[in-house]
Amino acid sequence: MEHNSLYNHRHSLAHVLAQAIQRSLDPKVQLGTGPAIESGFYYDILFSDGIEFWEANLKPLQKIMEGIVKEGQGFASYTAKNLEEAKAIVMNLGQHFKIELLDKFFAADKDAQYTFWYNYVDAQMLPRLEKTCDAGYIATYKSLTEYFTDLDSSVAGKFLTFIDLCEGGHVESLKDIADGSFALEKIAGAYRQAKDTNPMMTRIYGIAFETKDELKAYQTMMEEAKKRDHRILGKQLKLFTISELVGSGLPLFQPNGMIVRKEIEDYLWALHKEHGYSRVWTPHIAKEDLYNTSGHAKHYLDDMFKVHGGTSNEDFYLKPMNCPHHMQLFADNQFSYRDMPIRYFEPATVYRDEKTGQLSWLTRVRSITQDDGHLFCRIWQLKDEITTIVKIIKEFYKTMGMLDGYRVSLSVRGEDKEKYLGGEEVRSTAEWALKEICDELELNYKEVP
């Protein structure tokens, strides 16, 4: 994986964050993952029993991080000889979640390399660290330094201050990180490996740039953005209401909000109508049989709202997508191949049973209205029809002033092609058409299996 200097800067600070926690709050903390992200970094942390972490802890923790950066610690790596040695290292680190990662890497690639990156200072600095760091932390890293010295002779004369399983890259030394170029930002909850059956971890976010001035410019931009936050404007302009009686994630549109909503809906219909789409309407509920037939049931049923009819004594589901309904409209006609393509458009509200803790005003909801289009065409018509869709999308976002800096994810099949619907010929043709369109329309895209 290619890493630029800013990525290395941010990834290194994720390690500094975890080290700061071990040094000052919890030497036995369990570490999840700590990647670099678009504006900075984060680390998922599971604190030991009895240790709590709040927003108020961010500033003191940042001060400790700043002190670590001033120590000018170096970065170096050690690659385990095999999976067994990697697991032995992880057990010595006391980081049990990393075993799961090792197994995951091995399952994906039997020849995978397992690299451990460590921070270090000159061993002569140890007496100074002993005065400022948690005694449990010092004891742990004295033992780990001895352990790694036996594995790698280049560790001799160094005192290791943090060790983590990761692919890199990092700065060569924390001296490369400018003063005032980073700040801890917020905390959130996150299930380990994004599975709700796993423990909830504390995710600590930081922002980071290469210079202090770049950080300040970003912070100023974000402060200005807060003034235009839809949660604030929604109240000030009486656009929408979130009612506890109605339920979380189920927004109600006020008269002023409905004006905006209707204008957007009308504009979207105008864009589609001029490209040959026909408007349709489908109900909000359907029998489970529909989703069994479409194949959605085995993948999505747990995320759907179930409705039981009182007098009919039948079970229904609130629709989470419009595809199966539109298929039924198509099936109730006797189209010839000469009639293709058939294009349906519906601004339809769909419902998904999102977790309460993940809901956020209008950005994460349980009911959302999609400008949903489905079209039925012959294989050789794919490219022209998809080109039309892309042009509609670009025109809409251009009108809304949202086209600058866009990115496209070109989703293609992974290695296990048996998981995908449709025959090999149709799938391959569709992927080829998508890629050709991305190239011909000069979209800013990345191919993602």
Radius of gyration: 27 Å
**Average predicted confidence as pLDDT:** 91
Oligomer: single chain
Number of helices: 14
**Alpha-beta content class:** alpha+beta
Coarse shape:
elongated
First-last Cα distance: 15 Å
- The proportion of strand residues reads 15-25%
* Count of DSSP strands: 18
Helix content: 25-40%
Low-confidence stretches: none
Q: Mind describing the biggest β-sheet?
A: 5 strands, antiparallel
Give an overview in words:
With 449 residues, the protein is of the alpha+beta class. It is 39% helix and 21% strand. The chain has helices at 5-24, 58-70, 83-93, 97-108, 126-132, 135-151, 212-227, 230-236, 255-273, 288-294, 297-300, 323-331, 382-399, 424-440; strands at 30-31, 36-37, 40-46, 74-79, 115-122, 158-165, 182-191, 200-208, 240-241, 252-253, 278-279, 285-287, 306-308, 315-318, 342-351, 367-376, 408-411, 445-448. The model has no long low-confidence stretch (mean pLDDT 91).
